[in-house]
Specification:
With about 290 residues, the protein is α/β, with parallel strands linked by helices. The protein has nine helices and 13 strands. Pathway: Carbohydrate metabolism; tricarboxylic acid cycle; succinate from succinyl-CoA (ligase route): step 1/1.
């Protein structure tokens, strides 16, 4: 069953006529994602891989009814406006693929979404996928097979590697969610874990963290406070990163002694969460079949 996304989710693509939007629209359609329409201002009446193009989200809602989710491939300069447009037209799940959005703009639309009861995945995310159901993002679908392990990750490439390792051991994925690589994200580990906790198809959770920030430490404290919990195995990227060095993206930086590998590992292990040294250890530590 998974969380947030299924084959019945009605999706729109904002920025559908752009190079990235068009390319990934095709892949999402081929995977079975139910894409109703897309937007690209000034290009109403066109189609992209059979998907009708509109100028605005409001026009789509008027012609097609309620929309469940939007995925945004709009350039960084205009992406915040696209997010607000989706929220104001009743879309309850907004996946922001765009990277390079200014931090102050991210703070504003993430807070606005929370006030409106809208879930933001991202920004700067590879998206999410419920294997065998639907894909809303840029993840390579062939590495994910359906199963009972939920994956929540701050890293893109590592997520795919972990999925391959799970498959080698006969384990599949219920839903995989990329939180996003920026310092500000719409979801955090705690919120996604709670969703997985309430999903009967998810038997265990893999948490893929990385250096920078305190998201893993905050999750550790929360997890330790729970009386009933599903098993979690963690992997932290950036073990050898020096302080002050950005590794990969804006969210992965150790600053003023906060967010380094030892502190994250210590917090997770003290909460009873095993930390894998390599992705190949994760299936063994999960201990499920």
């Amino acid at each position: 069953m998974g969380i947030l996304l299924s084959r019945n989710t009605r999706v729109i693509v904002q920025g559908v006529t752009g190079k990235e939007g068009s390319f990934h629209t095709k892949l999402m359609l081929e995977y079975g994602t139910r894409i109703v329409a897309g937007t690209s201002p000034g290009k109403k009446g066109q189609t992209v891989h059979g998907v009708p193009v509109y100028n605005t989200v409001g026009e789509i809602v008027r012609d097609h009814g309620e929309i469940d989710a939007s995925i945004i491939f709009v350039p960084a300069k205009f992406a915040p406006d696209a997010v607000y447009e989706a929220i104001d037209n009743g879309v309850k799940l907004v996946v922001v693929i765009t990277e390079g959005i200014p931090l102050h703009d991210e703070l504003k639309f993430v807070n606005y979404a929370r006030r409106k009861g809208v879930i933001i995945v991202g920004p700067n995310t590879p998206g999410l996928m419920t294997p065998g159901e639907a894909k809303l993002g840029i993840m390579p679908s062939h590495v994910f097979v359906p199963g009972g392990v939920g994956i929540v990750s701050r890293s893109g490439t590592l997520t795919y590697e972990v999925a391959r390792e799970l498959a080698k051991h006969g384990l599949g994925v219920s839903t995989v969610i990329g939180l996003g690589g920026d310092p500000v994200t719409g979801l955090d580990f705690i919120e996604v874990y709670d969703m997985f906790s309430n999903d009967p198809s998810t038997k265990a959770v893999v948490l893929i963290g990385e250096i920078g920030g305190d998201a893993e430490e905050r999750f550790s404290k929360y997890y330790a406070s729970l009386r009933v919990k599903k098993p979690v195995v963690a992997y932290i990227a950036g073990r050898t990163a020096p302080p002050g060095k950005r590794m990969g993206h804006a969210g992965a930086i150790i600053s003023m002694g906060i967010g380094d590998y030892p502190s994250k590992r210590r917090a997770l292990e003290e909460a009873g969460i095993p930390v894998a040294e390599t992705p190949s250890q994760i299936p063994l530590l999960l201990g499920i079949r």
